[in-house]
Structure formats: structure tokens, C-alpha cells
């Protein structure tokens, strides 16, 4: 049982580590902030007090062209095969897919993509929230995609699970803190206030730090604090806890005597084994920080990968200088009239704005002009060359976008160029797949640790029929080989590269149509084949595909009814 004194000692120790970690990350945090400003179109010129007069934001354009809306599907396989473990693997896939559909992954994916390319990586935080309601069942998962600027790692360690401690930083309102952690208004005065632009204190918002650390036994602890105030202290974060009455020993929820309560950790839960006898099994306890880091492109040992902003910064800076020079030339340019002495110029409301009056008998040949408009074609060509250079650095080439092809090129040659260009981005995709496989694995371990009640999961089979399945923690209980029981977490997580999410809708529609016309699905005149085709189109989001699925289902059912009526059996 933790005491207030122990909490204060932990706070003092972790605050010291937090402040040291902040100092250690100042240099690369400054680089990250510079990358963000570059993405936003900063006119700053490195090594110069003067700013660019205009900004052609090629960084924004290039990074936005890399953004992918694909959210990989989970794929789970048992580490060693058995029929029950294969069944459990499918159950975990459906669980992860259900969580993926329920949470705002589309919005989080967009932030994750931009964070990764701007900063060189992104941070995902997975937590179990007992107050969340999932289909009338209490308790559920929460997932957050966090900017690397709000992640403070242990200095010198490049892998999250090798760290002894790390920190996440959030901004919250005082009302939110009071409601979530049960903090009184008096204690809220101890919180660290967040500061607005210009250094003015924003009295309604506070800075919250979530610290994760390992104790002497290697177990994960969690301490949440703001300034000098401890908001939450969980020395063994993943352990089950229950509030018991000190007087009667009953759980707080069923206590009637009104005695003082204490928080007690639970080590075991009761189960009924195959023989019907009562047995004990240790609660499943994860032993890793609930944080996943996605790297952009791995290179030298580092916490995150290289930033695309950093890679193309020299080109962006050079383009800004050239574009500024183009603007200066054009602003100084003009057409200057040449007139003989004594000629008068009169302003008017005419379209040309002025009238030059000549003297009687004077020749117009004595009037002329000097055109000082500069030639900026070479500047424009150089800026475009640098832009192409920047695109090629990150792998965004004409071949990949479909441009720059020659009429004399064969289709095979063009496809080869696209394939070669695409392969330059493959490393980034693999890092995304790795991060998502870790997210799915952490979803599973959190449900294995905390989801006491059965979860009902709906899914569609290959024929578009909706089924209900269940996820139960008890399905993962297995013998430990020493006469006891344990929870089996031996499953391999990856992403399904054949799920269709890696293609655009139009590409999938075209592939499905090609499969139909080429006979891959069967006889294209057979209603059953057409049903399979439209079921595939429905899964790919083709407009009005559902109506066609129902139409061909009705045809098949009517045909089957006719066959039964005439006493014939036909396999379709």
C-alpha cells in the first residue's frame, strides 16, 4: 500500500529525472521545432538575420504528397500451432479490428503521418480506461497519437522498452483534472500553469506530466503530476486493485458499515478448470511501457528516424533565396518614359492614367521608353531544378506521380520506373506496419489484463454475411507445465498486406472487374459468380454494390426454391 510520503519521494525523484531529460533533449527538440516551422512556411534563413521576402513552401507540398490514409488491418498468428490457438488468433484479429473501427484512427493516422515526416517519428500511447463503456460493458481501450515534442525520453537510450523511465506531456483544463483525478480546488493551485504566447499565464489550463518508470523488480509504475501536485500514483501500474473496507473486509461497492477503505492489489483470480475444480491463475501483467514509437527511416542509432524536413532543408532555403531574388527583381522593374525637355505630363481618369502632351510641330520620334524588366527565366529554372531535387531526395519522383513519361517508353518500362520509385518509400511503409503491429499487440495485452467481461464482436465473412463472435480472457488460460495455470500471450502480430487498404478504391474496383472478366471468380454468367463479384465490390466501397448483392442473392434463392420444388438438386 502506498503512502503520501512515498508518493512525495517518487515525485521528487521523477521530477529531477524529468528536468534532466528536458535539458538533454534541448538540442534535438530545437531541431524539431525548426522542422515544424519549415513545414508551416517559415521565412527564416539559416545563418542570416534577414528573412526571405517570399516563401515557396515546397516542404509542405512534398510532405503532403507522402501522406497515406491507409490504416493497416491486423494479422495475428499463434507462435506454435494448435486448433484452439488458431481460433484464439482469429478472435484477437476481430478484437483489434473492432477497436480500430470504433476509435478515430482516421484522424490519428493523419497526425501520425505528418508527425513522422516532419519530426522523423511519432508517439502512440495506449491506456486502459475503466470508465469507458463499450456496448454496455464497462472498461475499454484509449489510444493517443502524440507529437514527439511532448515525449521526453531517458537520455542516451534509443529503444523505448530499454528505458528505465520516460515522460509524456499534456495540456488540460483545471476542470478536467479535477473531474478525472478527484482533485479539490485548493490543491489545484499547486498545478503548473500552461503559458500562452507572449508568456502570459493561461489560468484555466495546466501542464500535466505522465511518468512511466521501472521499479527494482522490472515492473512498470506510473506517476502523474503537475508542478508539486501528485495527480495519480500507481507504483505497479498493471496490477489489479480493489478497495476494501478496513473494518469489515468487504469490497467498497458492497460495504454497509461505512468504515475506512484501503486499496489492495490482487495477484490471483479464481477459475474452474476442465475437471470442474476451483483453481487459481495469476492475473496477466504486461511488463512494458504502453508507448510505441514509429520511426520515419531508420539509420544511425537514434530514438526517431530522419526528418524529411531536415533532408530537404538546404533545397527549401535555396528556393526561398531565389524566389526572394525573383520578387526583388520584378518589384524594381518597370518601364520609364523618355521625354524631351519641356514636355508636360497630365494625369487623367483614362485607362492609361496619364496623358503626355506634345508641343505643336514636335515629332513623336523624340519620345521613347526604357524597359528595365529583368530576365528571370534562369532563376525560375534553378528554383524548379531545386524543387525536383528535393522531391527525389524523399522519393517523390515523376515516375511515381505519373508524370515525366516519354511517348516512346513502353508500358513495361514505365511500370518498372514506378516500381523502382515506389521501392524508395518502402522503408517508410515498413516502419508504419511495424508500429501498427505493435499497437495491435498492445491492444491485445491490455484486454488480456483488464477485460473481465465477454466482448461481443461483429464481423463480415467472405460472403458479406454478418456474424457475432466473442472475446473472452478465459479462452487464453493454459497450463503452465508445473501443475498451475497462466495466460497465453504467445501470438505473432503483423499487418495484413492483402486486406485491400493498401490500394485506392478505384484500384480495387478495377481489380475486381478484371477478376470477373478473366474468369478468376468462375463462370461470369453464373449468378453465384456475379454474387461473389458484387460482394467483393461491396467490401471495396463500390457505389450501390449492396443493392446488387441483394439482387443476386434473391436470384439464387429463387433458383434453389425451384430446384427443390421439382425434386432436383443443383450445386451453384
Any overview of this molecule?
- The structure is a single chain.
- The chain is of the alpha+beta class.
- The protein is 39% helix and 24% strand.
- It contains 16 helices and 23 strands.
- The strands form 9 sheets. Strands 4, 5, 6, 7, 8 and 9 form a 6-stranded antiparallel sheet that branches.
- A hairpin with a 5-residue loop joins strand 19 and strand 20 (466-471).
- Helix 14 packs antiparallel against helix 15.
- The protein is extended and about 125 Å long.
- The mean pLDDT is 85.
Short key terms for the protein model shown above:
about 575 residues; extended; 23 strands; three-stranded antiparallel sheet; single chain; alpha+beta; 16 helices; six-stranded antiparallel sheet
How is this structure best summarized?
The chain has 16 helices and 23 strands. The protein has 572 residues and is an alpha+beta fold. The protein starts with a helix and ends in a 7-residue tail after the last helix.
Termini Cα gap: 67 Å
SS summary, helix count: 16
Query: How would you describe the shape?
Result: extended
Largest sheet: 6 strands, antiparallel
Strand fraction equals: 15-25%
The count of strands amounts to 23
Alpha carbon gyration radius: 33 Å
Global structural class: alpha+beta
Question: What is the helix content?
Answer: 25-40%
Low-confidence stretches: none
- The averaged pLDDT comes out at 85
Amino acid at each position: 500500500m502506498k503512502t503520501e510520503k512515498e508518493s512525495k519521494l517518487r515525485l521528487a525523484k521523477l521530477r529531477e529525472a524529468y528536468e534532466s531529460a528536458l535539458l538533454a533533449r534541448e538540442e534535438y527538440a530545437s531541431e524539431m521545432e525548426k522542422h515544424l516551422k519549415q513545414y508551416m512556411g517559415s521565412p527564416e534563413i539559416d545563418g542570416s538575420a534577414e528573412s526571405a521576402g517570399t516563401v515557396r513552401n515546397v516542404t509542405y507540398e512534398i510532405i503532403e504528397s507522402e501522406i497515406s490514409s491507409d490504416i493497416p488491418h491486423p494479422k495475428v498468428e499463434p507462435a506454435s500451432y494448435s486448433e484452439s490457438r488458431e481460433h484464439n488468433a482469429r478472435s484477437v484479429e476481430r478484437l483489434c479490428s473492432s477497436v480500430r473501427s470504433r476509435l478515430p484512427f482516421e484522424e490519428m493516422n493523419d497526425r501520425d503521418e505528418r508527425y513522422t515526416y516532419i519530426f522523423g517519428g511519432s508517439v502512440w500511447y495506449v491506456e486502459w480506461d475503466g470508465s469507458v463503456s463499450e456496448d454496455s460493458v464497462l472498461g475499454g481501450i484509449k489510444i493517443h497519437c502524440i507529437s514527439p515534442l511532448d515525449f521526453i525520453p531517458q537520455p542516451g537510450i534509443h529503444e523505448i522498452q530499454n528505458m528505465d523511465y520516460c515522460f509524456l506531456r499534456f495540456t488540460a483544463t483545471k476542470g478536467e483534472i479535477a473531474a478525472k483525478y478527484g482533485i479539490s480546488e485548493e490543491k489545484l493551485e499547486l498545478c503548473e500553469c500552461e503559458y500562452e504566447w507572449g508568456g502570459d499565464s493561461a489560468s484555466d489550463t495546466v501542464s500535466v506530466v505522465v511518468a512511466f518508470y521501472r521499479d527494482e523488480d522490472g515492473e512498470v509504475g506510473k506517476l502523474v503530476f503537475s508542478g508539486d501536485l501528485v495527480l495519480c500514483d500507481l507504483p505497479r501500474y498493471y496490477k489489479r486493485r480493489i478497495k476494501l473496507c478496513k473494518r469489515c473486509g468487504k469490497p467498497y461497492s458492497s460495504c454497509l458499515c461505512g468504515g475506512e477503505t484501503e486499496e489492495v492489489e490482487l495477484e490471483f483470480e479464481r477459475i474452474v478448470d476442465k475437471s470442474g475444480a476451483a483453481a487459481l491463475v495469476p492475473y496477466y501483467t504486461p511488463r512494458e511501457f504502453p508507448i510505441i514509437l514509429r520511426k520515419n527511416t531508420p539509420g544511425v542509432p537514434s530514438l526517431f528516424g530522419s526528418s524529411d524536413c531536415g533532408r530537404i532543408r538546404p533545397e527549401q532555403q535555396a528556393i526561398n533565396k531565389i524566389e526572394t531574388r525573383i520578387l526583388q527583381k520584378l518589384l524594381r522593374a518597370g518601364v520609364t518614359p523618355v521625354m524631351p525637355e519641356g514636355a508636360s505630363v497630365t494625369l487623367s481618369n483614362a485607362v492609361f492614367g496619364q496623358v503626355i502632351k506634345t508641343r505643336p510641330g514636335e515629332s513623336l520620334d523624340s519620345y521613347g521608353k526604357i524597359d528595365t524588366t529583368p530576365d528571370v527565366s534562369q532563376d525560375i529554372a534553378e528554383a524548379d531544378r531545386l524543387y525536383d531535387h528535393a522531391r527525389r531526395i524523399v522519393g517523390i519522383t515523376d515516375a511515381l506521380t505519373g508524370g515525366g513519361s516519354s511517348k516512346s517508353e513502353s508500358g513495361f518500362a514505365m511500370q518498372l520506373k514506378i516500381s523502382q520509385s515506389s521501392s524508395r518509400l518502402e522503408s517508410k511503409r515498413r516502419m508504419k506496419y511495424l508500429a501498427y503491429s505493435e499497437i495491435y499487440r498492445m491492444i491485445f495485452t491490455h484486454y488480456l489484463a483488464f477485460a473481465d467481461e465477454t466482448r461481443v464482436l461483429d464481423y463480415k465473412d467472405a460472403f458479406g454475411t454478418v456474424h457475432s463472435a466473442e472475446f473472452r480472457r478465459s479462452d487464453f488460460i493454459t497450463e503452465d507445465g508445473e501443475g498451475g495455470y497462466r495466460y497465453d500471450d504467445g501470438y505473432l502480430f503483423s499487418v495484413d498486406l492483402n486486406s485491400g487498404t493498401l490500394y485506392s478504391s478505384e484500384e480495387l474496383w478495377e481489380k475486381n472487374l478484371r477478376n470477373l472478366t478473366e474468369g478468376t471468380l468462375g463462370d461470369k454468367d453464373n449468378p453465384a459468380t456475379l454474387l461473389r463479384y458484387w460482394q467483393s465490390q461491396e467490401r471495396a466501397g463500390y457505389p450501390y454494390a449492396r443493392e446488387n448483392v441483394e439482387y443476386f442473392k434473391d436470384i439464387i434463392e429463387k433458383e434453389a426454391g425451384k430446384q427443390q420444388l421439382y425434386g432436383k438438386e443443383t450445386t451453384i
